[in-house]
């Protein structure tokens, strides 16, 4: 993992989030309280503003500071969960440099597990985990057999898209959408969509 890549990813994710304003806002208006886009926009802006502070730091410190900053800026249900992801990535990176894709996949997997614990949720509950769990599984599976990086990133993007789309037919059992019961059926989960957009963007950057 390189600090320069993380900084590029922040800029690319910020663009992708800003380009998805109307969609993310309406998804969260349909089955939540409509603030998911604003929450993410605030987090992205805070990270962009840290660029000069982050640039000289080793990746573990960069990931740790990203986690802390997102914890204090995103808010909502998603903020602490996304922050937990980065703080766990930081911990694993600190324990031993993440050099190979297989090591990054293992760290990603551990970080998704940490989100599950923090939010007491799992697959099938109509949350961002329905994007992240299949991505973590695909990432681990393909790096374990030494698949070509381009193939790994393509497969990750497909897993994210399928996972995100799978939330449409689900009833939510966590988060605000859980109050809607069956009425949440037919709507994609906003956190699943934003996670898929973020994963797609970073995978696209990693292919270059
Ligand atoms: P809030 O619901 O507090 O307004 P956001 O709108 O920022 O927060 O985020 C909503 C998203 O958070 C949901 O779409 C869902 O994906 C995710 N979410 C909520 N609760 C959980 C949970 N317990 N585990 C995983 N993800 C969750
Ligand atoms: Mg919301
Ligand atoms: Mg809210």
UniProtKB/TrEMBL annotation:
Pfam families: Dak2. The keyword Transferase applies. Residues 4-204 form the DhaL domain. Its EC number is 2.7.1.121. One of its GO terms (biological process) is glycerol catabolic process. InterPro entries: DhaK_L_YcgS, DhaL_dom, DhaL_dom_sf, Dihydroxyacetone_Kinase. NCBIfam families: dha_L_ycgS. This is Dihydroxyacetone kinase DhaL subunit.
């Amino acid at each position: 993992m390189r600090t320069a890549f993380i900084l590029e990813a922040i800029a690319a994710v910020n663009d992708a989030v800003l380009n998805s304003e109307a969609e993310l806002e309406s998804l969260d208006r349909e089955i939540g309280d409509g603030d998911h886009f604003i929450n993410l926009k605030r987090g992205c802006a805070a990270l962009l503003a840290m660029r000069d502070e982050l640039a000289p730091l080793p990746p573990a410190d960069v990931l740790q500071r990203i986690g802390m900053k997102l914890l204090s800026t995103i808010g909502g249900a998603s903020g602490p969960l996304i922050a937990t992801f980065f703080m766990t990535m930081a911990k694993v990176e600190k324990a031993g440099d993440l050099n190979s894709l297989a090591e990054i996949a293992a760290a990603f997997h551990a970080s998704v597990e940490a989100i599950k614990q923090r939010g007491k949720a799992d697959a099938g509950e109509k949350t961002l985990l329905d994007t992240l769990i299949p991505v973590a599984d695909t990432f681990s599976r393909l790096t374990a057999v030494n698949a070509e990086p381009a193939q790994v990133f393509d497969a990750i993007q497909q897993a994210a898209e399928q996972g995100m789309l799978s939330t449409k037919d689900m009833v939510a059992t966590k988060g605000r959408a859980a109050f809607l019961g069956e009425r949440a059926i037919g709507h994609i989960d906003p956190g699943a969509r934003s996670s898929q957009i973020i994963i797609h963007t970073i995978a696209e950057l990693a292919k270059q």
